[in-house]
Please model this.
Amino acid sequence: MPEASPGKWHLGHVSWFFETMILARRMDYVPVAPELNAVFNSYYEALGARVERGDRGLMTRPSLAAVMAYREEIDRRMEVRLTEGLEEGLERYLFDLGLNHEQQHQELFVMDMLNLMSRSPLEPAAYDVEPRTSAVQARRDGWVGFESGLTEIGAQERSFAFDNERPAHKVWLEPFSLAADLTRNADWIAFMEDGGYRRPELWLSDGWARVKAEDWTAPLYWREEEGGWSVMTLAGRRPVDPSAPVRHVSFYEADAFARWSGRRLPTEAEWEHAARSDPEAFANLTSEVWQWTASAYAPYPGFIPTEGTAAEYNGKFMANQMVLRGGAFATPEGHARVSYRNFYYPHQRWMFAGVRLAADGAQAADGDAHDAFRREMIEGLSHRPRSLSPKWFYDAEGSRLFEEITRLPEYYPTRQEAALLRRVAPEWAKRFGPAAVLVELGSGASEKTRIVLEAASNLAAYVPIDISSTALTAAAERIRADYPGLKVLPVVGDFEHLRPPPDEAGGGRRIGFFPGSTIGNLTPEAAAALLRSAREVLGEGGLFILGVDLVKSPEVLVAAYDDAQGVTAAFNRNLLVRANRELGMDFAPEAFEHVAVWNAGRSRIEMHLRASRSMTVHLDKLAFHLGQGETIHTESSRKFDEAAVKVLAEAAGWSLAAFEISEAPSVALALLVA
Model:
């Protein structure tokens, strides 16, 4: 293992570090076992001879028992030393350095164990399930843009940081965007299938030489099987999960992928500025993989290495390596921070390293939506059961069809909710207060908004949020024309990932508005997360008007989602028409039957598209086989009662102030108070 070390070496080395850096500072100190210095010394030239990394696995002595005995003695001596008290300044810093050094080796231990396991033909598993402190975060989708300006990066003096994180200093940034999500395995497979590892024009010269010399065709630990790609993990060899962030790629691979994508890697200053400015806009920022940057590992202006032997900890490696930012699932909790500078050689792959793309300037919202649609299509068709998000229903034709649905006799929710809103809005608007700000989630055409605007004439601003920039712009222009005294501040975005309203909205009370029973389209977990996010964004004292559909007879519910004229069926199939047009897919929409069913166990109506025959559909070079009778789940619409709404609201930090029900067939509006 030229880059990895055996487990017992890590166990001994971290204790040796405390002995060498702290205990041995006293002139009369007697080492526990002087002969172990050469075994456990990693790279400190000032401390004499050492075993080279590639040879550490050949050392059969000391035994594991001897190493553990050594650790116990160092622990005992350190406890005595701590009881006596550490000197302020350097010695205190070296103790903190030792703790953080041990955390680094906890992650290295896992990395090296996986590397060792991958070399065995038995392909062992260390765990039944890969260990992690938190689940992979849900995708945010799209890009987060940042303006040009002077920013400060690097660690402040208030808390521990490695010397390579200091001093904090100013850096000028041009406008840029950073991907809200990590690059996924599905994206990487598309790169591979497009000849990514066979196209020298995508690669840096040294990277291409490495591809040829080591015959790279996929990320480290991947293997092509008869049924697809597999990957070696801490839980053994498993099928590659298309939706999971890609791991074990080198800087050379990350750079080639970025070039193939028409993007680039971020600089470390861009990454840190984005992470400090808007961390909630990004998924898996510090919890999944270390993210390659385009920055060479070099000293910051004014860099001063740690005094003494520890000067070799970072400074002497500041050449020929690249910086990674973030943190991995195997990084000990609390170890990573926004200024943390990890670094590896550009060809190395065994660490938990992945990719978050960057681009110059602001990325167009429509481009974001296209990329997100493509990613979610791949993810949805790659899983069983297959599913797609209902937010992709609403292209121009889908919006037209939905407007037609709202006029159907069977479809009661829109007209019942509008009538109810006209009844309650005047009374509820009295609670808004002066200069209030109305924030509408998934605003669409903003038709119901007008009922609220008429009732609350003293609103200062209206902030509609919608994923479709075209629909949003058109609706905002109509509202501006009809309400010239109102600030209209549209925000293109996914309402599941809320951000605070623009500063120009003012400081009045925030009123969330989420009509249309849309919350029923979300999973219970996503619905709770949305309400928690809204509670945080709207702030203390905020209000939230929530529309929900109520549980009723299955006959009424099914008819509302499967009308006699077939408009809802056309609306459902239009999702496939859109995929063909925008993604270049080859669905046969007429070969899919629209199905609406009441799922009593989950209190929801489900819409599916059921294949009437076996078929294979393509997205670029990816192929998805659907068997006859197999379905694509396109929408769930959960139905509520007052008790369920109260539980949901209170779990997210809201209290239920009012719950008004329409005439039959009944829907409800809930008024929540923060």
Remarks:
- The mean pLDDT is 92.
- Residues 7-118 form one domain.
- The chain has four domains: 7-118, 143-363, 412-552+640-673, 561-638.
- The first strand starts at residue 143 and ends at 146.
